[in-house]
């Protein structure tokens, strides 16, 4: 069999398996078998690049990153729909339709809460995809759409030209997993699946979009040069035959039946993998649609019924506190079971202490619970007239309910956070951060491996990483002996890291990479830093009072002391490998300008910082000194205007101890 035939057969088989898995949700082979076939195709295409085609499954992984998105003018505008919010408004819509259309038949479908896009095919090949934008002009997101595996790259028996419209969404389970991973990495959480889908589509690097696990359903033909259909339902059936994932829809003639079906759809919304924010009612006949026409904003033949937030009374039976992976204490109300939006609700989020205090929510209160577009129910208000006697305002605990460590409130927000260095609730987040590149830089110890180690009970604190057994690690899923050897070698290598990396790895609040380097160089060892007082810490440039407080509290905590002792026992380096930092120039800010002959400006800045100075890029009244080399420009003039002391290169070298001279006199001049 020649290479071209092999490639075509593999490509056809993989496209078929994509359709079975991503469109029909009925896979016929295992992930392992699929990955093996894909690897074989990648190897063949790498050896014979002339055989690569745009519709190949290998082209879905994400191409080259873009500098910006190009604008696309839609051949047929992507209109929005008129919203209706009540049964009466829906009846008004029906009345208006019947004034122009005889015995209309309607299609009812869920309104997907995602990002509307148009897909364009030429001779059956996907050539371009664009966002809705303002309906007339959108953005070209072709490369990102290629990464969505339910979108066919090539159609069989398709007309020369076809444009379809659909909704890109992030499946709810994918969204939850993505947020879990972002929480482990200490990244900001995404607000909801719709925002996540929209943000993913607007990533300039398609590889990021490919990793987001997006999906899409198609709900309309925008344009085609084939023979027109009589009804929308027939057009959707044809799109299914072309192997698109098409929105579920039902046919009705009676508006009362539609109203009942809309309520039923609302009750069943959680059966869908995507969020829905309403139901779409559309005239099925395309001829009747033409007769009804459109306004400047909306088609007259369709309406979007928006679900009102459903609210019911319940009773707060208890308030429990959960500790998240980042240490945040989140209160949750346990409420008497109540039916909302098709599910039985027994819990409602209380967000934080400020939310509880603002609404004055107490155990025993009768409350109004709401479940609108969001998945998690929340308390809207308290029915104060039904409050039992003897209730007390609720306050979050002052210690972590999981590990007993002290809790602190964020200086810049409403979160209350556990400070425990070995808190079990934060273990995944703690280990992931500890092993990250800017911290201990343990190659191969990503979130998935961390989760495997924790689930197997092999690691309970960061120190346990240095006591791992090779055979136990090798038993983990997708590890094996070679991977275990590589991981243990990377862990062993991390023992020799500089103290600055260990300080960052501890995850002490407000101690980032820069602060870690400054503190390590200034104190030289972890023991010396642990003995430092708040006054000694705040005397250092870039260490403020709040950071000093967090540092002293962290070192004083029993869990921190236990972790440090265990890491010492494991042989982890606790000393700084940087040159000791002096405090000769502490409190002075320097600006460097012009060309220096003895060293670069960066090297000069390092010399100043090594003596406790701060180096800035701009001159102001607070600048302590400007060092001016050859061809100094506007910064020198600005310093002269403000009366800021100026040193030439020779004086600078005397000041930092690299030339003989009276450095004391120079220092006295600068500190006047």
Fold blueprint:
Elements: H1 3-23, H2 31-47, E1 71-73, E2 83-84, H3 87-98, E3 106-112, E4 115-122, E5 125-131, E6 137-139, H4 142-146, E7 161-169, H5 172-184, H6 193-201, H7 206-210, E8 215-224, H8 232-241, E9 250-252, H9 255-267, E10 276-283, H10 286-292, E11 302-306, E12 310-323, E13 329-340, E14 343-349, H11 353-359, E15 366-371, E16 378-382, E17 407-409, E18 416-418, H12 427-435, H13 447-455, H14 470-474, H15 480-494, H16 499-505, H17 513-523, H18 526-531, H19 534-538, H20 545-556, H21 558-570, E19 589-593, H22 601-609, E20 614-616, E21 625-628, H23 634-642, E22 646-647, H24 649-655, H25 663-670
Helix pairs in contact: 1-2, 12-13, 16-17
Structure description:
- With 672 residues, the protein is an alpha+beta fold.
- It has five domains: 3-60, Orthogonal Bundle (Helix Hairpins); 73-306, DNA ligase/mRNA capping enzyme (D-amino Acid Aminotransferase, Chain A, domain 1, 2-Layer Sandwich), CATH 3.30.470; 310-386, OB fold (Dihydrolipoamide Acetyltransferase, E2P) (Beta Barrel); 419-581, 5' to 3' exonuclease, C-terminal subdomain (DNA polymerase, domain 1, Orthogonal Bundle); 589-670, BRCT domain (Rossmann fold, 3-Layer(aba) Sandwich), CATH 3.40.50.
- 36% of the residues lie in helices and 19% in strands.
- A five-stranded mixed β-sheet has the order 2-11-10-3-9. The chain has a five-stranded antiparallel β-sheet with strand order 14-13-12-15-16, with no helix packed on it.
- A hairpin with a 5-residue loop joins strand 12 (310-323) and strand 13 (329-340).
- It is globular.
- The termini are far apart.
């Amino acid at each position: 069999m020649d290479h071209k035939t092999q490639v075509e057969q593999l490509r056809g088989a993989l496209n078929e398996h994509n359709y079975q898995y991503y469109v029909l949700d009925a896979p016929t082979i295992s992930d392992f078998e699929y990955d093996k076939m894909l690897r074989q195709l990648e190897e063949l295409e790498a050896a014979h690049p002339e055989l690569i085609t745009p519709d190949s499954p290998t082209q879905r992984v994400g191409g080259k990153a873009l500098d910006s998105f190009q604008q696309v003018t839609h051949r047929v505008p992507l209109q929005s729909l008129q919203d209706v919010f009540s049964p009466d408004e829906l009846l008004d819509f029906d009345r208006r339709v019947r004034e122009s259309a005889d015995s209309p038949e309607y299609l009812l479908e869920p309104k997907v809460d995602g990002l509307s896009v148009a897909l364009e095919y030429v001779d059956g090949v996907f050539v371009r995809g664009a966002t809705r934008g303002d309906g007339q002009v959108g953005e070209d997101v072709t490369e990102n759409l290629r990464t969505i595996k339910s979108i066919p790259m090539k159609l069989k028996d398709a007309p020369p030209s076809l444009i379809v419209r659909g909704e890109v969404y992030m499946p709810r389970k994918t969204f939850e997993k993505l947020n879990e991973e972002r929480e482990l990495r200490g990244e900001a959480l995404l607000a909801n699946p719709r925002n996540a889908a929209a943000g993913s589509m607007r990533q300039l690097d398609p590889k990021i979009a490919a990793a987001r696990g997006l999906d899409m359903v198609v709900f309309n033909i925008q344009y085609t040069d084939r023979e027109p259909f009589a009804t929308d339902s027939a057009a959707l059936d044809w799109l299914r035959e072309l192997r698109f994932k098409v929105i579920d829809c039902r046919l009705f003639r009676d508006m009362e039946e539609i109203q009942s079906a809309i309520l039923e759809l609302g009750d069943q919304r959680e059966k869908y993998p995507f969020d829905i924010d309403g139901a779409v009612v559309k005239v099925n006949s395309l001829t009747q649609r033409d007769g009804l026409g459109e306004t400047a904003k909306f088609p007259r033949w369709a309406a979007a019924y928006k679900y009102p937030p459903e609210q019911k009374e319940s009773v707060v039976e208890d308030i429990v506190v959960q500790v998240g992976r980042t240490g945040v204490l989140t209160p949750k109300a346990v409420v008497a079971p109540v039916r909302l939006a098709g599910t039985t609700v027994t819990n409602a989020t209380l967000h934080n202490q400020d939310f509880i205090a603002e609404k004055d929510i107490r155990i025993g209160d009768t409350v109004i619970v709401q479940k609108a577009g969001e998945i998690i129910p929340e308390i809207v208000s308290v029915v104060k007239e039904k409050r039992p006697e003897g209730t007390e305002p609720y306050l979050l605990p002052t210690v972590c309910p999981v590990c007993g460590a002290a809790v602190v409130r964020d200086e810049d927000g409403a979160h209350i956070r556990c400070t425990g260095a070995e808190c079990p609730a934060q273990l995944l987040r703690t280990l992931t951060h500890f092993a990250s590149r800017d911290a201990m830089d343990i190659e191969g110890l990503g979130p998935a491996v961390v989760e495997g180690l924790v689930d197997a009970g092999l690691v309970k604190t960061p120190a346990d990483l240095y006591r791992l057994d090779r055979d136990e690690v090798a038993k983990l899923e997708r590890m094996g002996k070679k991977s275990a050897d590589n991981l243990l070698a990377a862990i062993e290598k991390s023992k020799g890291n500089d103290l600055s990396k260990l300080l960052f790895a501890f995850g002490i609040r407000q101690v980032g990479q820069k602060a870690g380097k400054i503190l390590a160089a200034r104190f030289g060892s972890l023991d010396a830093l642990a003995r430092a007082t708040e006054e000694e810490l705040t005397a250092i440039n870039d260490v403020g009072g709040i950071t000093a407080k967090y540092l002293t509290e962290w070192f004083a905590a029993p869990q921190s002391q236990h972790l440090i002792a265990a890491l010492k026992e494991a042989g982890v380096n606790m000393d700084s490998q940087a040159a000791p930092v002096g405090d000769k120039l502490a409190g002075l800010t320097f600006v460097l300008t012009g060309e220096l002959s003895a060293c670069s400006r960066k090297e000069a800045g390092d010399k100043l910082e090594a003596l406790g100075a701060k180096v800035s890029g701009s001159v102001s009244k607070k600048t302590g000194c400007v060092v001016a080399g050859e061809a100094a420009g506007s910064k020198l003039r600005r310093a002269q205007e403000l009366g800021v002391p100026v040193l030439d290169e020779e004086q600078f070298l005397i000041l930092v101890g690299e030339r003989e001279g009276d450095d004391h006199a120079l220092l006295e001049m600068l500190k006047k």
